Here is the input.
Amino acid sequence: MPIMDYLERNRREYGDEVALIELNPEQKETRRVTWKEYSLIQQTEDAPYRREITWRVFDEKANRMANMLLGRGVKRGDKVAILMMNCLEWLPIYMGILKTGAIAVPFNFRYSADEIQYCADLAEVDVLLFGPEFIGRIESIVEKLSKNRLLIFVGETCPTFAESYRELVADCSSAKPDIEIKDSDDAAIYFSSGTTGFPKAILHKHLSLMTAAQVEQHHHGQGREDCFLCIPPLYHTGAKMHWMGSLVAGSRAVLLKGTKPQYIFDAVSREHCTIVWLLVPWAQDILDALDAGTLKVEDYELDQWRLMHIGAQPVPPSLIKRWKAYFPKHQYDTNYGLSESIGPGCVHLGVENIHKVGAIGVPGYGWQCRIIDENGNEVKQGEAGELCVKGNGVMECYYRNPEATAEVLKDGWLLTGDVAMQDEDGFIFLVDRKKDVIVSGGENLYPVQIEDFLRQHDKICDVAVIGLPDKRLGEIAGAVIQIKEGMECTEAEIEEFCQGLPRYKRPRKIIFADVPRNPTGKIEKPALRKRYSVERLVEHENEG
Here is the structure.
């Protein structure tokens, strides 16, 4: 059963109910504007720009998209890329692609022009839909990019080198295309984070998408009255697969543009959101604003908010302790997943297990997990090894890269590249990324453990621990520390605080700087290593 069946069911049973809402707090809208199916709701002067569509309109938009592509010769197995910021058009376009039997290929909106070209070539993209934010990047490579490809612009004023989405779909049928889709059909290509160079293309079947939808709904129990606030980018598996729980339930979702604490609370309050998925930096910002008094719980209608969950990165236990102090009635959950395992859910904590905060959890609904050593043997309980997962959400392959596929797929098991351990109760704790482990004088240092310790310092906003070259020890732990706004801190203060760590785990190098994170909240450690490793080598030369 493909996930589009849920969309068609929602159209039949809940057609006039709101499916999606787009909020942009940084843009105000006081005029009433009507398209054929969309309407901009009349707003008060202080309200954010807001659009909404019903389930009926959602499905009609998806069908028009599908019929437009079919009319332009797109066929089963062709690749259709999406390069757009979160907006009301994103999900209907995605679902429309799937309805044709073509393969949806979401692009990271941070890609440079070269990366866009690379990914389009790697995935053998036939059609590219792009938004107004990307006109300059597309124009700079249009001669190479447009070769044998259809470029479609989704926005107001279409550039001359592309065709207009609005014009193309305007007269297309809103009826469901007569195409049979099977679970075994190819559905989507997602891209790895590219932490070791250009990203790899990850191919998933329709069975993977359905698995993600059902796992998410099973974990978080979305019902008809729930409303999911979606803030992370839809190109990423995490955001979209969490939304698919709303698709299964037939419940509303809000796409919020902007991550400021006030924007998040305002959206929860105005739209009566019940489920919010946050990244660690956003949760941290909310808590800091509450501590500072610039954000006040009593100014918003938040009683209906039942679940706050975090994914995409390790969660400091101290953060959840602070969160529960402000929101004692909130359920909390964390999810672990990879794009190779169709996003969140292959491991999850579970709302009933908040006493195990710090763990990523237990095998998710329908998933199996193992922790193995370098020879592929399961390690003893309490020992660290590589986490492997198995289930219907595992990717088919790295597209056009059989060597890389063979490295991570072993007899149906996906080797995640993450170092983990399991406690006596069966809960899995993420120790670190295998490639991030620091080997210092023969000792393995796990940056996440050091980061969790440092985040307890009341002046630290964010921290990244990386390996830096050292003549004597091979590598040392360097801590890149971002101090909270308006505060001052010295190396001596950090060194004194680190006396609480075993000597071999203490950072040997303290660097005060911003900690860069990608749109899904992951620390960009390759960029930090590249920058500060060079500086460290220069220090060595000067010392020599």
